[in-house]
Amino acid sequence: MTEDHYPIVVVGGTAGGIAAAVRAARNGEQTLLVTYNQHLGGMMAGGLSYTDTLIKKSRAPLLDEFFSSVRDHYRTEYGENSKQYEFSEDGYICEPHVAEEIFEEFVANEPNLTVSRGYRPTSVTRNGSIIQKVTFEAFDSDSTFQATGSTFIEATYEGDLMAIAGAAYRVGRESRSEYNEQFAGRLFTGIRGDRYYPRAAVGDGDDTAPMDRRGPLHVPTDKQQGDLDIVPHPAGLTEIYPRSTGEADNAIQAYNYRLCLSRDPETRRLPDRPDGYDRAEYLEELDEIIESGVRQYLLLRYLPNEKADMNSADLPGENHDYPDAGWDRRDEIATRHRNYALGLLYFLQNDDAVPDEIQSYAREWGLATDEFTDTDNFPWQLYIREARRLEGRTVFTENDARHAPGLDRTPIKSDAVAIAEYPLDSHACHTERQLGSQPEGFFYASQVTRPSQVPYRSMLPKGIDNLLVPVPLSATHVAYGTIRLEPTWMHIGESAGFAAALAEQQQVPPADIDSEELQQTLGESGVVYSFFNDVDRSEFGSESWIPAVQYLGSKGFFDSYDANLETKLTKSRAEQWSKNTAALLSNTGKEPTVLAQDLPDSEPDTSSLTTGDFLQLLRTELHKDELPPSVLPSDLEPSDPILIGHASVICYQLLRNHGDGE
User: Which of 167, 266, 289, 319 is the most exposed place for a label (fewest CB within 10 A)?
Assistant: First the structure.
């Protein structure tokens, strides 16, 4: 058995794993990426072609680079006036093979990155809180190898590495009472799809959504007039039904395969009857199929080149033993899901019970013959929406993705390293229904979910100091709904890569790095960890303000999603910011959410404040005669009126210089 050393070892070829590995490698560290199969990208290249994001502005460099590469592909290959470019939705939608090619380019372009494909972790050697090495075994042979390292990153959907390493984890649903979560535990809800949510993103106008919409990324401009700068989603929760007891259990949300279908006769293959086909399973669904129509039932979202992403054929309850199962049992579950999805298409296209018009439309679609060419045109990745979840040094809960009391934003995390914004949701956990409800466990809380901050501690296991967990991170079942999106995982994964590289440079385990320094590195590298409506790195005039507002956004300096950086700083806010800065420098500050709650109301303040006035307030609070000259922006004089953006830079530089020892 060979043994190789890499400072950073990433397990999992998911989008989050690739982002972590590529970022660590770009930051100069020799990195090993171990994947479960021969393909890269996880679900992002394995059939989930319709990007699950409600933020269409810059949030993380590698994610931006991915979307830019998609845009470039369709623009170069087909032209800006083509249907292909139109259906790529500015780079947020692409065919599976395009996504995989981009991930392959990401990896191939990094000389510091080595990829070992087709291996799984089988054992871990630890010395107390430190993982020393991991043994890997090939899926299709007796080949094994060992990898030693300084930092290990868990980026599998299953959470296999953290489980083998002995990290605490959870499978299933918390009770409603454990974390005071409205949607926790046993739950029956309704849903509607004819309105855009949340209203704060839509605005005061008409919020109706047409039934022939292409999907949540294809939202007309007149439906995006609200103050909340996210893309409204055309689905929302209607009610919570009786017998929603909130009891905890071991249930997880349903899995499926995201098939890539084609209606181009040149690239369309109708599926054969799969093994174990039982038409009775589909006859039970026929009335619903007829009522909703094939496209709506299959949840077809259109892709370039006459293709569609199919998001149906869930099997609630048939995956509950998957997370802790061995690979033979996992393969059985995957095969069952594969045959069920193929059987659904076969039934719609061939069964005599299916009405002619339904059957005719269904036969327009078949497996895309130019996708998944080495796996019989069927996705190689089962959509594992949830499996094990880390029980880490903090737990991200439903309430972390909802408005905090007294604030017009979610709770503020002092160690934030990324953002999440997608609606809290879960696919069904059981098939049971109540009259008018969705299957048990399903919910879609787009009305109440708001952009949140993902804390660094949610990636840190208890008792293991050199393991980072950006994919199956520490969150409740409910909260995982806003985390478990591929762009969000890619965002968090890149932050993990930054953390791993920083730990290696400082020669400490990632649990021991200074989260303040990590945040400063992230902000100055273009990673967003504080969401604001009016801050966009790609458009904002003064880039020097961006890292400052990101950092202060995690310290309680803002009580809403509006930074108002070009607004004059009021005296009352200047006084509070000066006190906050002094408290942070002396490590006597309150929790950031409390600090934000203490901010003065944003009412008009007629007081005129100059830069010199603000500097004097800071000197008074800091008990200093002079401040370092470097804190003052070069384009600012003491007599100039001070804007919130300028004040942000001054406070940030004071806090940053303190960390640098000045």
Answer: 266
Q: What is the pLDDT of residues 316-347, one digit of tens each?
A: 999 999 999 999 999 999 999 999 999 999 99
Cβ atoms 247, 186 nearer than 8 A:
yes
How far is Cα 461 from Cα 161, in angstroms, rounded to an integer?
12
With contact defined as beta carbons under 8 Å apart, do 569 and 607 qualify?
A: no
Could you tell me which of 627, 625, 618, 649 has the C-alpha nearest to residue 636? 649
Upper half-sphere CA count for residue 640 (Cβ side, 13 Å) = 11
Question: DSSP secondary-structure letter at 661?
Answer: T
Three-state secondary structure call for residue 116: strand
Please name which of 655, 459, 628 lies closest in space to residue 549, comparing C-alpha atoms: 655
Bridge-based pairing state of the strands 467-468 and 151-154: parallel
pTM over 0.70: yes
Amino acid present at 266: E
CA distance 604 to 345: 61
Is the CB of residue 221 less than 8 Å from the CB of residue 342? no
- Residue 545 CA to residue 650 CA, distance in Å, equals 10
Among residues 253, 251, 254, 255, the alpha carbon closest in space to that of 174 is found at: 251
Residue among 506, 509, 483 at smallest CA distance from 385: 483
Q: What is the rounded distance in angstroms from the CA atom of residue 38 to the CA atom of residue 21?
A: 17
pLDDT (tens digit per residue) in 522-546: 999 999 999 999 998 776 545 678 9
Q: Give the Cβ contact number of residue 437 at 10 Å.
A: 21
The model's confidence at residue 662, banded by pLDDT at 50, 70 and 90, is very low
* pLDDT tens per residue, range 52-78: 999 999 999 999 999 999 999 999 999
